[in-house]
Write a structure and sequence with these properties.
- By secondary structure, this protein is an alpha/beta fold.
- The chain has one domain: Luciferase-like domain (TIM Barrel, Alpha-Beta Barrel), CATH 3.20.20.
- It contains 12 helices and 13 strands.
- The strands form 2 sheets. It has an 8-stranded parallel beta barrel with strand order 1-2-3-4-7-8-9-13, surrounded by 8 helices. Strands 5-6 form a two-stranded antiparallel ribbon.
- The longest helix is centred in the middle third of the chain and has 19 residues.
- It is globular and about 60 Å long.
- The two termini are 15 Å apart.
- The model has no long low-confidence stretch (mean pLDDT 93).
Length: 360
Amino acid sequence: MATPVEVSWFSALCDDDYEYLGVPDPALRSSYAHCREIVMRAEAGGFDNILLPSGYALGIDSIAFAGAVAPQLERLNLLVAVRCAELWPPMLARQLATLDQMLGGRLTINIISSDLAGAPLASAPRYARSLEVMEMLRDLLDGKPVSHRGEHYQLEVEPARTGTVTGRCPPFYFGGFSEDARECAARGADVFLMWPDRLPAVSEVLDDMRARAARHGRSLRFGYRVHVIVRESEDEARAAARRLVSRLDDEAGAAIRKKSLDSGSAGVARQTEVRDAADDEGYVEDNLWTGVGRARSGCGAAIVGDPDQVLAKLRAYQELGIEAFILSGYPHAAECDLFARYVLPQLDHAPLRARIEAGA
């Protein structure tokens, strides 16, 4: 019997919700009310977790939003994205511990290492800074004092009185494709996240990351961030994919991609390579469609098919070692309901955090 997987959804805090990709819709614009609706749909649908992404120019703030929605949830975990160096690490640790208390111990943390608004930084020092932040956050959220003398931070501080429910740091989810990103993840992350790629390429990255973590005396779990389009039949799913991009202007799509602070990253470049290798309809392998990447920086492909095909694709990733899926679809609330109806009941799933903390 396969190990249970964590199945997460995505709340579009970064102005990334459309009926027609690349065509702004005021009703789907990021707002507290709209993003809360997505979160509540995910809880009602039975998902384990939900990603609250973080941007600067786009959307609304992830930590403020998490604080507002946390008391309204009964069982859903929140995967809150934080951008390294936006906040002084001890203050960020206190905020995260407070969120964990509001959630009854159901906080997970997505560490983002992209440039800060108005202050770009080369890859190597940026990831070095991120690793420093991760190390300090982990100690502080474990209730330990920090005496840190690094390239980017020098501080000595006791942990704040406010701690997490368990007294331990929630797991860090972290993604990146470059050499610097992979080394940072191997040294500091708990869950390494991938964006969509061909199955052989996914396997190669997982093998590489296992070896890197082992060299540091560590082990990693693995997550996969991908969009989904599921319908009763494959023809209906493919038609929905075509409809999604039917009004997309390529120049408008390129402008959307460039707005992201990570638009020049190695991971984004790899998504472009995957898209360029696709066939005339945008499929790069069975049921993996790259059309989403025409108007989105970052995760740029969707699993498209009927319920059995989508389930088979997820299980193929699971066989490679993926233990957590972060899914999304357009519009996010509607596709959340469809996945919850057609696929989620067939997956053996449970929150990953409990298994990480139990050492399972």
